Amino acid sequence: MRQIRTLGLLGTGVIGSGWAARALHCGIDVIAADNNPAMEDWIRGSVDNAMPSLDALTADAPTPPKGTLTFTTDALAMARSADFIQESVPETLDIKHQAFAAVSAAAPADVVIASSTSGFMPSELQAGMTHPERFVVGHPFNPVYLCPLVEIVGGSATSDETRAAARTFYESIGMHALMVRREVPGHLSDRLQEAMWREILHALNDDIATTGELDDAIVYGPGLRWAFMGMNQVYMIAGGEGGARHFIKQFGPALEWPWSHLKAPPLTDDIVDRFADGTAAQAGGRSIRELERIRDECLVAIQRVLKKHDIASGATLNRFEAHLKSMAERRD
Ligand SMILES: NC(=O)c1ccc[n+]([C@@H]2O[C@H](COP(=O)([O-])OP(=O)(O)OC[C@H]3O[C@@H](n4cnc5c(N)ncnc54)[C@H](O)[C@@H]3O)[C@@H](O)[C@H]2O)c1
Question: Where along the chain do the CATH 3.40.50.720 domains lie?
């Protein structure tokens, strides 16, 4: 596998800029390509904004000199110079297909091309590419610079070497690589999130609760647990000494009723208003930038607490800092 000295980015919006910050923090140079020249200011501003949080996250480890960020509107020039390419253009199949056809024809055959797609399956994305075996989905979470999860999904043409190379690269920049066994629309995490969001929209539509009340139903209860134990482990514990078998016997029958809906409600103007007005009321006049700052400070604080328990994202952070320390020893 190539040593990744230069990360090439295609698309430098919310997700592309997050990838840039994470890589630069690890001393990797970034060539960021976007067909909108105005995105240069955006990505530079986003990276500057992310760096203090990344420094705070890895405060116990020496970090290498930051990589260098270069911006271009020439995707092919990016493709010829990058050791690994991460695509984060809009979630539209045509745009992605066109971008992959051009970039894969220009990039050397041993350069992995990964997509941040939230929901497309890798087999549908890699169709028509040059060397489709080096294509893989690497689906991150926002903000990419602080959330360690990346879902790695191969398509029918993806090689095992590509999956392994993607895993090695993502782990070297502090991520938790979740190897998804089989491609399905929405991968794993977004399927789970979608099920919950569908219920939220039903609750708004049925006038059961506001967006704020529904968010309270998460953050004061289940959400507190989910940062370190997923739903399955939490339910096992909730079964007491009888564990998961007792839990499913007690609460499983409710699935037959069921409490929740299986189809989303139609997205009427009224639901859109309730969602938008409700979340604006929750923001209480704070700007998106202010909310991002609060989010980022909490994400850093939570991971640094979990680090002491060496669990979940805290365990990933321990491995990341150990990697940064071994890189520093090699530099000395
Ligand atoms: N926003 C999220 O929370 C999130 C989370 C995980 C994954 N994703 C996925 O990441 C991808 C990007 O999402 P985003 O939210 O960053 O979008 P975005 O709209 O913020 O950014 C997309 C960028 O791509 C650029 N672009 C469009 N066509 C291009 C082309 N042909 N070549 C180069 N650049 C091009 C646009 O100018 C824009 O800057 C999508 O596939 C999305 O599903 C998004």
Answer: 6-187+324-331
User: 6-187+324-331: what CATH class?
Assistant: alpha beta
Give pLDDT tens digits for 280-304.
Answer: 999 999 999 999 999 999 999 999 9
Residues 28-59: pLDDT tens digits? 999 999 999 999 999 999 999 999 999 999 99
Listed in order, the ranges of the chain carrying CATH 1.10.1040.10 are: 189-285
Residue 32 contacts residue 21 (beta carbons within 8 Å) = no
Q: In testing the pocket of ligand 1, which one of 15, 85, 98, 115 has its CB within 8 Å of the most ligand atoms?
A: 15
Query: Residue 264: which pLDDT band, with cuts at 50, 70 and 90?
Result: very high
Atom of ligand 1 nearest to the CA of 140: 6
CB burial class (10 A; 0-12, 13-18, 19+) of residue 273?
A: exposed
- Is residue 6 within 6 Å of ligand 1 at its C-beta? no
**Beta carbon of 88 within 6 Å of any ligand 1 atom:** yes
Give 88 Cα–ligand 1 centroid separation in angstroms.
4
pLDDT at 10 over 90: yes
Instruction: Using most ligand atoms within 8 A of CB, pick from 116, 120, 188 the residue to mutate for ligand 1.
Output: 116
| DSSP calls for 283-325 | HTT--HHHHHHHHHHHHHHHHHHHHHHT-HHHHHHHHHHHHHH
Contact 10, 86 (CB under 8 A): yes
pLDDT of residue 332: 82
User: Could you tell me the CATH superfamily of domain 189-285?
Assistant: N-(1-d-carboxylethyl)-l-norvaline Dehydrogenase; domain 2 (1.10.1040.10)
Is a pLDDT exceeding 80 seen at residue 305?
yes
Name the 3-class secondary structure at 184. coil
Q: With a cut of 80, say whether residue 1 has pLDDT above it.
A: no
